[in-house]
Known about the structure:
Blueprint: H1 19-32, E1 40-44, E2 50-53, H2 55-60, H3 72-75, H4 87-94, E3 98-99, E4 112-119, E5 125-132, E6 159-160, E7 163-164, H5 168-181, E8 187-190, H6 197-207, E9 215-219, H7 225-233, E10 234-235, E11 247-248, H8 250-253, E12 258-262, H9 269-281, E13 283-284, E14 293-294, E15 298-303, H10 307-312, H11 318-324, E16 327-330, H12 341-355, E17 362-363, H13 365-373, H14 379-393, E18 398-399, H15 416-438, H16 443-450, H17 454-464
Parallel strand pairs: 8-15, 8-16, 9-12, 12-15, 17-18
Antiparallel strand pairs: 1-2, 1-5, 3-4, 4-5, 6-7, 10-11, 13-14
Amino acid sequence: xxxxxxxxxxxxxxxxxxxxxxxxxxxxxxxxxxxxxxxxxxxxxxxxxxxxxxxxxxxxxxxxxxxxxxxxxxxxxxxxxxxxxxxxxxxxxxxxxxxxxxxxxxxxxxxxxxxxxxxxxxxxxxxxxxxxxxxxxxxxxxxxxxxxxxxxxxxxxxxxxxxxxxxxxxxxxxxxxxxxxxxxxxxxxxxxxxxxxxxxxxxxxxxxxxxxxxxxxxxxxxxxxxxxxxxxxxxxxxxxxxxxxxxxxxxxxxxxxxxxxxxxxxxxxxxxxxxxxxxxxxxxxxxxxxxxxxxxxxxxxxxxxxxxxxxxxxxxxxxxxxxxxxxxxxxxxxxxxxxxxxxxxxxxxxxxxxxxxxxxxxxxxxxxxxxxxxxxxxxxxxxxxxxxxxxxxxxxxxxxxxxxxxxxxxxxxxxxxxxxxxxxxxxxxxxxxxxxxxxxxxxxxxxxxxxxxxxxxxxxxxxxxxxxxxxxxxxxxxxxx
Length: 481
């Protein structure tokens, strides 16, 4: 809804100077106005003035009319001064999501339960998306049946579909997934390799109205440009050598559903121009054909690189970034959600035991602690591989520290000095790998980032067995959870 006195926003103009931020607010408005009553959202400017609120949130505030942009604590909280501490203020200050000390929002008259920053094209927090606790208003509406079984789950559970986690970072991801699922806008998933971007894309699809239509995945970085264009848009017979028959493209195959473009940053500028036209016009042109075909496809893309940095480096089209990043979602690395590791370990352990027809096994407390303290540069996928390898190569009812010996991700169990020394080495190795990835495999730039000499970096690479072949493509593990 547009509340009285609030400026209207559009991708080209709106309450903010930054076009990317205006586009994100507009996309949130389009989807939030059609969400169930239990989802009550407000968008705030840096001075805590309300830029937008959906109908349930405004009803919760008693629908006060105002002739000027309203301050959130005046309208929603009915106060003359803001609540302290305020999650929205904290989110503006830190650039990170913030929650009420009491998850129910009971400490705040306005009922704020969580605040999530909305970033501008310069990665600055210029607005905040606020979630209100529905119990502060007209009551909590039941969760609607979306026809996907128990995929949504209940509030407080530690999974959403196949995604697992109870950490604050993952609860925020779950909430954003629910928020964006019913939108038709494009979604950009960003995060390190192995954080589960494909699984998040699949969950968004399964929660959406397109859930009964195809979900098509393509790894843009694994195909040469000519073949990628043919795979996505199709081709007609004789379009190129070897095209003995016409072929439908994946966009056409996904008509009515969702297409997931993984590693979108690895595409060429020429291909990006063609993809931009598809997103703008909603139509494709098969290779070798002069006719265009209309398609209705929701696009979810993913990258383990910072696309804004790629735009600044002229390696990615700015206009395509704006189209893809209407609804951006960042996935946390495993080291930032360590409290989820025991959940993931038990899940992967049970899954591996079933797959390899073994009785269900357990992990000793010492081994679980070692797993929780490991650096995990390959994130969730690396953890899954470590657990499966241990299940296959060992016996007995429990997995102990010795069952993980030789796996580079884990510090060994033992005396404190040994553990500390090993943890320091693993942390140093992980930082070197991260620097190489940030530098695109350029060792000179990596040494600069690490603030060491090039000779020292070469010695470290030899010491830790990091070969050129590992940079930068093999630094991470495949993206899925």
